[in-house]
Input
Amino acid sequence: MKKIWLLISALIFIIIGVFGFIFLPYFNFNVDSQQLEKSFSSFGEQIYFSGRGEDGRIIPYNYGPNWLRMHGGGCSACHGDNGEGGLPLMMSNTEASSITWESLTEEEHMEGEDQEEHPPYDKSTIKRAIKDGLDPAGEPLDNIMPRWQMNKEELDAIVIFLKDLD
Ligand code: HEC
Output
């Protein structure tokens, strides 16, 4: 009879596991912000990898794909761990560009192949791209790039992080 109970408890654990997996994105809203900070070596790194800003809040954004809303995530979800871009993006045929400081600020910075050429980025146009989705020429970026509603501290931190990415 012991075996039956073993089987039943195994089943219960599997069910809890499956439920947990499905609802994880919904339970994920409140994180311990101090715990979160500890897992990254800087505030900018936290934003880059988790999409969470001050006090662990999920940084709100406009546009961007639905899967990002479901699963959460930061810049690394599209631009890669090193900002190199080029990852295949779900439900899109646009590529996330390289956003290392070097490639953003070099003369011939190009976005996707079908994009117009534009002047190189500087600190303030990078911030504008992140917030308002405009390239240095003032042209809108693809809608898959979220428009992040960051506050000043968050913007400063992410720019410092991008500078260190090279
Ligand atoms: C859902 C995918 C996605 C996420 C998440 C994302 N980006 Fe992007 N990003 C893109 C795509 C795609 C482009 C290229 C848009 C284009 O070429 O029009 C882009 C372009 C950019 C650009 C302009 C580069 C250029 O080539 O003109 C910057 C700067 C940038 N992203 C920074 C960020 C930062 C910082 C974050 C995190 C806070 C972030 N992105 C998160 C998809 C994403």
Notes: Residues 47, 64-65, 68, 74-75, 77-79, 89, 94, 96-97, 99, 111-112, 115, 126, 129-130, 135, 141-142, 144-146, 148, 158 surround heme C (CB under 6 Å). The chain has one domain: 30-165.
